[in-house]
Every structure is written in C-alpha cells, then in structure tokens.
Amino acid sequence: MVGMRGAYGYNDNGNEGGVVVGGGEAEAEIAAMAVLHKVAAPPAQSTASKLKARVKETFFPDDPFRGFKGKPLTTKWVMAVQYLFPILDWVPSYSFSLFKSDLVAGLTIASLAIPQGISYAKLASLPPIIGLYSSFVPPMVYAVLGSSRDLAVGPVSIASLIMGSMLRQAVSPAAEPLLFLQLAFTSTFFAGLVQASLGILRLGFIIDFLSKATLVGFMAGAAIIVSLQQLKALLGIVHFTTEMGLVPVMASVIHHTKEWSWQTILMAVCFLVLLLTARHVSMKWPKLFWVSACAPLACVIVSTLLVFLFKAQKHGISIIGQLKCGLNRPSWDKLLFDPQYLGLTVKTGLVTGIISLTEGVAVGRTFASLKDYQVDGNKEMMAIGLMNIVGSCTSCYVTTGAFSRSAVNHNAGCKTAMSNVIMALTVMVTLLFLMPLFVYTPNVVLGAIIIAAVIGLIDLPAVYNIWKMDKMDFLVCLCAFAGVIFISVQQGLAIAVGISIFRVLLQITRPKMMIQGNIKGTDIYRNLHQYKDAQRVPGFLILTVEAPINFANTNYLNERIKRWIEEESSAGTKQSELHFVILDLSAVPAIDTSGISFLIDLKKSTEKHGLELILVNPTGEVMEKIQRANDAHGHFKSDILYLTTGEAVASLSTFSKMTAP
Amino acid sequence: MVGMRGAYGYNDNGNEGGVVVGGGEAEAEIAAMAVLHKVAAPPAQSTASKLKARVKETFFPDDPFRGFKGKPLTTKWVMAVQYLFPILDWVPSYSFSLFKSDLVAGLTIASLAIPQGISYAKLASLPPIIGLYSSFVPPMVYAVLGSSRDLAVGPVSIASLIMGSMLRQAVSPAAEPLLFLQLAFTSTFFAGLVQASLGILRLGFIIDFLSKATLVGFMAGAAIIVSLQQLKALLGIVHFTTEMGLVPVMASVIHHTKEWSWQTILMAVCFLVLLLTARHVSMKWPKLFWVSACAPLACVIVSTLLVFLFKAQKHGISIIGQLKCGLNRPSWDKLLFDPQYLGLTVKTGLVTGIISLTEGVAVGRTFASLKDYQVDGNKEMMAIGLMNIVGSCTSCYVTTGAFSRSAVNHNAGCKTAMSNVIMALTVMVTLLFLMPLFVYTPNVVLGAIIIAAVIGLIDLPAVYNIWKMDKMDFLVCLCAFAGVIFISVQQGLAIAVGISIFRVLLQITRPKMMIQGNIKGTDIYRNLHQYKDAQRVPGFLILTVEAPINFANTNYLNERIKRWIEEESSAGTKQSELHFVILDLSAVPAIDTSGISFLIDLKKSTEKHGLELILVNPTGEVMEKIQRANDAHGHFKSDILYLTTGEAVASLSTFSKMTAP
C-alpha cells in the first residue's frame, strides 16, 4: 500500500485544479486521487557546466557582454572599444546645447573644487597644492573611462583623513615631508591597484559588505573626527595633538586655552555662519544650489582680501603662504616600494581604496537611478582605479566621486562627463596663473569650508529611519559611529563590518522556522503565528525552514524540531494524535552534506517515534541532492516527496483513514 | 479603480477554495472576486519582547527549563540539582544487572585506555604517566556531570598532537621539562575554562562552524601527521625533526637512514600487522569488538615480555623506563599565569579546547541518537570544561570523549557513566601497583598502537560521499586536509573554517532567484527551469528570491532583476507585453534597511518602465517592515500585496482585462 503512494504521474487534466481541504471526506479523497503532482529534479547538468553557471552568476551578474551576442565581428570590436571607453558613447552625438549645460556645471563645481582641494590636502597633511593637482588630472581620466554622467571627481574628506592618519603613525609630515609625500603617492598607487583589480576580477561585491547602516554611522563619526581636527585652524592653536579620537582632541583643545586667538575665532564664527546659511538656503530652495556651491570660493576671496588689507597675518592669523605656479609634475619616480614601508602603504592603499571606491560607486548609482540610466559597478571600479594609478604618477593623491560635489554638479544641470573636463581646465588655469593670489588665504577659512562640507555627512533622518526600521541595524550604525569616534577610523569601520557579517551568520545559524496551518476554506498553508485564520491540521506538524540547511544550523534544526515533535506528541489527545511531520522546503535554497545527514537523521528519529517525515517542494539543488542520497542509500523514496503542502495533507489524510483499523 | 483592488477582506465561505488559472476567463474572473486573501502582519510586539524571543532562540534553542514550568518550588529545586548533576538521574534506580554490563564495558575500555594514555602523552611530549593520570580523574568527574551514557573519557590523539606542537614552538620539552609541564597544565586549565564558558554562555553554536566536511578533511590530515610522528618510534630514529609537516618529516626520515634499527622495524611491522588485523576482525564481525579492544594491552604485555626476556633494550630498542607508582599529585601550584607565556597558553587552550569539545560533543550526540536519548550540548560543554579544569589541578592534560574508545564502550554494552568509574578505578590500581611492569615496554609498540588508533580517523567512504554530494564541500574537505599536512594543524583548520564561512556569505551575496511559471491546470507556481510542465504567464514576470534581503545582496538583486525586466520587455510581442513584476517573498526570512530601500527603488524603477511591482506573501518580519515603510512614506499600499501568486495572477489578469481599452 505504501508503495503506491506518490506514484501518480502528472495529471494533465487541465480543467481541474486546486485541492479542497476540509470540505468533506469524499471530496478530499477524490481530490487526492486526482491531482497529485510529482516533484521534479532539475535537468541533469555536468559539474563543469554547473560551475560555469555559478561562476557567471557570482562574477558577471550583470552579464556585461549580452549585447554582443549574434553581432558581426567588426560590430563586436566597436562595441568592445566603446565598452572600455564610455566617452565614445556620448562624444559623437555631443552638441552645443549639451556643452552649455556642462560649462555652467563645470564652472560651478570648479569654484567648489578649488577651496575644497586645498582644504582636503591639508586634512591629509599634504601640501595644499597636491589637492589642486588632484582636481586636475583625475577628472580628465575619469571623463574618458567613467560611465557616470554626474560624478564630480576630486579629493574627498574621509579618504584624506584616513590616509593622513594612517601615514602619520609611521612618518611625521613636518619632519620628513618628502618621505611623507612619497608614501602618499605610493598609497594612492596601491589604492588604484586595489580598485582596478576589484573591477577587473569582478569582485565588486566586496564593497557591498559595507551596509547602509554601517556607512551612515561611519560617515557621521568620520565627519565629527574631521570637524574636530579643524579646531586647530578655527581656534588658532599652534601645538595641537596628532591623535584623532574625540577624547585626546578635546583634551588638547582645553589644555591649550592660552593659545586660542580671538581674531581667528571671530573670523571662524563669521565664515562658518555664512557657509552654513548658504548651505541651508540651498537645501531649502534647491534652485538656489549655486549659493552653497559658490560660497566657499567667495569666502576664500573675501577672507584673503581681509587678511591682505588688515595685514592680519601679523595678528595671529595663520595663512597658507607661498604656492608655486605650474601644472602637475610627474611623480612616478617618487613611488617608493621599499620593504620597510611596503606593509604600511599597501594597508593604507587598501583601506582608502575601498572606502573611496564605496563612496564613488554609491554616488554614481544614486544619481544614475535619479536620471534612470545604468552605471556598471565593475566598470566604475576600473575607471576609478585607473584614475588613481595615473594620479599617483602625476603628483595626485587618492580621489573619487564626492557626494556633495556630485550633487552640485547634478543640480547645476550637468549632462555628461564633460563637466569634469571643464572643472579640470578651470583648475589648470588656476594652477598656471592664480596661485600667488592664495598667499594670504587664512587657514581658518579652509577649516570652516571643511566643516561646512562634512556636516552634510551626518544624516540624522537616515539614523532615525534605521532606528524605526531595524533595531539591530541601528546597533551596527551606533557601533560604527562610536568606534570611529572613540577608537579609530579604521577600527570603527572594522567593528561595524564585523557585526554586520556576524549578524548574517547568526541568521544562518538560527534560521527561522514556523509552524504552518491551513487557511480555512483554501489549500493555502501559512504561519500560524502571523495568520489568525490559519488552523492546525490534526495529526500533522507542518514546519517551514527559511534558510539554507548547512553545517552551521543542522544541530539547531535537529534540536528545535525534536522539541516541537515532543511538545506536539505530549499535547495531542487520542483523536488528534500526531502521525506526520511535514517539512516544507520551498524556502531552502541550498543544502550541503551536513544538511543531508540531518535529513536522514531526522527521518530515522521520526520513524522511531512512529511518525512519518514528509518533504514538500524541495527546490532545484536540494531535490538533486535528495535524489543522490536516495540513489546511494535509499533514504528518500519518492513517496515522501510532495509538491505542495495541500496535496500532501489531502493525500495523507485519505491514506491514513484508509489504513486506520 | 485601483483603490478597489486588494481591498477584499477574508472570505469565510469555507466550501470554496482553489483558484483556477487559465481555465476560462469567466471562471477566473469569478474566482478572483471570490477568494482574495489579505496579507496579515504578525501581531504587534514591543522591541523588548522581540529581543527576548530572539535571545531565547539564539541561546536557549532547546529550552532546557521547559519541564520546570508550573511545578512546586521544592520540585523545582530538586530538578535544578538533577539538571546540574545528571548522575542523580540514574544512580537512584541503579541495579546489579546494570552494574554487570558497566563492569564488563569499564574493564574493556580500561584495557584500551592504559596503553593509549601512555602513547598519547608521548604524542604531546609529556611524561607517559600524565596520560594515565588523565585517565583517572577526568572520567570520575565526567561520571558525575556528564549526560552521555556512552562517552569514554580520556586523552585523545588530535588534542595531544596540537597541544604538543603548539607548546614546543616556545619551549623545548627536553631542555625545560618542568616549564613544559606547567604550560601543559595551564593550557588545559584554559581549555577547560573556554569549554565551560561556551556551555554557560550557551555559545555552543560556535563549534557548529566546524562542518562535517571540514572535520573529515581535518581528521584525515591529523591522522597522517600523527602517524608520521610515529615513524620516529617505528624506525628507531634517534635524531628526529621537531617539525610536523609531511615534507620535513619525510626529509628527516630519509636523511637519517643510518639510524634505522632493523630490530625495531621488525617489531613494528609485527605488532602493526597484529593490531590492524584485530581492528579488521572487529570491524567485520562487530560481536568480536573485544578483539581490537584488548589487542593494544595484549601487544604491550607481549612486547614487554619479549624485551625483558631477550634484553632487547641493549639491541637498539628504546623502552619507556622507570615510572613512579602513586596517584595524581595536586598540580594547582604548577599553573603558570606568567605574562610571558599567557598568550601561548590561552591560544593553546582555545584551540585544543574547541577541537576536543567538538570531538566530545559529536561523539556524545552520535551515540545518543543511536540509543535514542537526548544529550544537551551546552550541558556537555560544562561537564567537559569542568572536567578539564579539575584535571589541570590534578596533573592531567586535555581530555575529552574519544570516538574509538566510546565505540568500544558502546559495543561492550555499557549502560551508564558507571563504566567510566570502573575504568578510572582500574587505572588507579595500575597507577598504584602495576607501574614497574611498564619499565621494559618498548616505545615502538606505543607507536604501533597510536597508528592503529588514528587510522580509523581517515574516513574514505565519507570523503567519497562528500565528493558525490557536493563538490564545494569536497573542496573544503581537501583544503582542510592539505592545509593540515602541508602547512600546520591549526592553519589547516583555520583555512577550512574560513572557506566554509566564505561559502555561506557567498550564498547570501548571490542568492538564488528563479522565474516561476504556472503548472498547467493548477494554481501552483514553480521554477520554470525545474518543472517542464510549468508555463510562463503572459504579461507577468514571476520571480522568487530565496535568501534574506540585506546589504550584502541588494545591489546584486537590483541588477539581476533589472536585467530580467529588460530581457522580458525586449522579447515580448505586443500580445504578451509585460505588465506586472511579481516578487514572491515567501522564502525571504528577513529584510534589513538596505533591503527596504531596494524594494522602494525597485518599485520606483518598475513604475518608470510602466510596470507594476507586486509583492506576494511577505512573511512575519518582512511584512512588518514593509508596513513600517508604508506608514513612513506610503510606498507599499495594500493593493500591491497578495497572499499567493495564484491569487495575484488571477486578480490582476481580470483587472487588466477590465481596464484594457
């Protein structure tokens, strides 16, 4: 009798459908006889072809060459060149009206890029001119290779901060400026190498492990650390701590109260209020974006004039000083692969590379989805990576697409990457002719510009949203924030990533399992806890597992299911005695050898309790392995496999009635 | 019109059920009107109560105190004491017939434990007597605290090997024997502390990360390393390498060909053949288990007699030498918490503790499931941990339940942990009176005993099974094996664990997604690739996601779904133009803030393409978050939520027909 069950083939009688449960015994019996569907195994595939498919899904989820299929060879070549140089996509159809838009956008971001370039270079303990160099060559390279139309390329605050702090641990920028510069270029080279490799090896998913919660917390923490560093410039302190944490910086600020200069503080307050007001205006009326975009340059001009007119440098206000005119000098001879510093530069390159890549790709994706075009993540990585490799050979340090500058670019109406070229040309003009004008620019105004820029990284609405959505994510966010502020920028990031991954692992180790019940009058089975209308089916324990079954959770599943069986068995009256344990495998995407052993174990132990284990709807890979286990040891006959819970319940209740004494 | 959809409440008309798709338009229309079910959110819970439930599932999946509920206070106390001391479970009802069985089993495992104890201590570079001490106190402690009835406790090969190799890196056992001994006891103390803490903190799931594939590969590798170490004794080499890897050991063996002693080799071959034959006999006829159980002791006796009679120690056969009579001396004064060695002992304790815990718990679980009783993993960890802490204070080194000895115990018919007590008492008698008899025992026979014992750890059928089941698991197994043999025991293990975890993460980063089709004549929707009978529904793209949606995979999901939509849109003829994208969330157990952002993004981008996004059957937590996102921003109106794909398709095809021009 048992052998007969489950042996029905497909029922091709297309006009009948849907099993009715609880709608009368006779009906159920007929229904069970009529509509049993077999669980099919996926078509047999060789290991090699499965491996190929897996590799393709892992590394080429976007299938970048799908357009190439079936095209003639010459077209393929043209397409390949176009793929490598996205500039060819838009240059042929470039028009004067597009150029007008890009010109406006390019000049706007240049007015932002010049003061920010100088400021961020100082944040990285580099000579200010390196910041301008970095706003000249990399944007040109990106314009050729990059696929985003909105990304405005240049140095960014967080990567500058991290590079400065990591290199300062080994070398003092004041004592050995040349060595420090060499290490900065070498780190930039490695950053570019890491970024380009991630793109070429299509390992872009590594940056996905920086979750939104991690980034929100990290950015907010880094913004505060960056702002704290500016207290040196804003208060006019000369002997400032070289440490970064909240505690040592505040201690240093309080300890050096005597060095505070009232002239500097007055200037700081005025320009900070001005910049923040401009920022506020632009946020409130987005059409006035140019107010905040031009404010930094305006502040630089006004403050430089003030210093020049009042000879303020003689009253305790520190100024940038002489800057040399001229374009980027080649710096490949400055790349330093000395084993003594190799570890440091590789590590610095890795951290700054991944951080700046994350920012660049995220910014690119954000604006692409606003304008509804596609940005290829891996191609972006190659573009950003090459841009940094070229940069490291032309006196530039780490650059990427900055959020604030790209937002201005977008608001100013940029159409193509030409706006980056315009910006680079403007910076070039500055480098060639206008450098002497910056002699009297006070450092305090640069500090104010940095603070006004990074304050946007503290995204309180996002934090509130995370708190409301998911308390665990909020914890991750908080840890990233606290780690950055109290320990260090890198370790805060590492802690947050660690917690995120641990959380994912915990989800696997303790997968969700539910008892399902039948929704009255249907053949739908749903979670008893979630649906009040769902009712237990007497004699059945219907469980769903919602995770891959693997080594990390088989022990848990085993214990948990046994406990449920025990509870059910002890609670059951004679009428509703437990006969069947149904395991719905619909939501189990994969199973490993430990998982198969677990199923075999479970089958044996349920049999010892006089119960029968039924498996419902194993998906492709799982079905394949169940079949293999059956071939090897005969553990899973086809009569314990059903396609839906409804069919299993209908068929088995009929069966148990027929065989009941 | 749109507002009307999805607004149907529950249909309580229990006699109707099952939606028919494709069975005539009129029918479908009626069916769609009749049986739409709402997606319910789980009952509202406070964060605290959710956290409590989560913590309970994570740390108390077995709910150890569920028997306590509703019992009077005194009963609770009695139960608590019984929980802490499982000995109280069986002692009150202990009978003479049980004792007879335990006596036979205890004497049998003692005959195995004495030669193995001496051998394994030598493997750990410790004095042989420490091995006997370790077979005396820990079994007594375990008998009181342990909940397994079959576990035979004592030193084991792999933990001995690892402890020896890790401590030898810092201290030479020949040059500083006392310091080495101190470090061994201290490591044992930390091992016990780690084990007991894992039990008390209920972090037992940490050992779950050693998957079956990892363990099979690791054990096989370790068995080979252990056997290689025995070549010193088997060949009679005096100047042997202190390294462990395959390459240096074989180099050392070949380099010292002149030291090979033919007398030793002859003896080695004879006894090895004898032991392996005995092993083979016991495996073929399980009733003759005592043959392999008693063979080691018989070999020791015979070889000792031979050496004594022929004065073989004068012919190049090395012997154990004088051993002192007497029981374990207290060793708490030997525990060394010197900062210089603290790192080493903590690390050694951690590694040996987790390895031996894994073995002990796995062995306990295996035999418990054979005899169908429950072993509480966390309680076992506490028992094994306390046993090692007590052991470290009474001149014992790391002990756990050994697989081979427990199997003998089980086969010999043990009934309770009393067999461990019998074994301990036998070892005690040996320690008190029989130690002088071991003076002439040759080292070569100990080497042969170790090889015969560890050869069982090479589980070729399991390897074959893993190869057939899962190629990726096989790779993990191979890496563990190769890592142990060519790099080092600890690093081989670390590599295998790393690959296992990376694999789990990769599964999350690249989750399975399938296009589903309707199985003809039913309302069942299944994977198009797996079921040939499944057919696409024109106008619909039905996708299932089988993983939690979180930061690690939202980018991938986004790209993959967009690509599918693109392909569908370009392939569709006018008749079958794509209108709806259905995302079946049944198999999505959890979602985080990145996941919610992804859904919102996806909804916006599908709308831009003139498509409608439909979500089917979000489970508890996911539904809750979708609801919260809707409350906050109104992204997910209830008209895009359906309980089953069948209902969604039926309702939407009716709807699109009604509104079509």
TrEMBL record, chains A, B:
Superkingdom, taxonomy of origin: Eukaryota
Subcellular location: Membrane
Gene Ontology cellular component terms for the protein in this record: membrane
Domain STAS: 530-652
Example GO BP: transmembrane transport
Alphabetized PROSITE patterns for the sequence: STAS
InterPro entries reported for this sequence: SLC26A/SulP_dom (IPR011547), SLC26A/SulP_fam (IPR001902), STAS_dom (IPR002645), STAS_dom_sf (IPR036513)
Pfam families: STAS, Sulfate_transp
Membrane-spanning intervals of the chain: 178-198, 204-226, 233-254, 260-276, 288-310, 381-400, 421-439, 445-467, 474-506
Main localization category: membrane
Topological category with respect to the lipid bilayer: Multi-pass membrane protein
Alphabetical UniProt keywords: Membrane, Transmembrane, Transmembrane helix, Transport
Name of the protein in question: STAS domain-containing protein
Gene behind this protein: LOC127771104
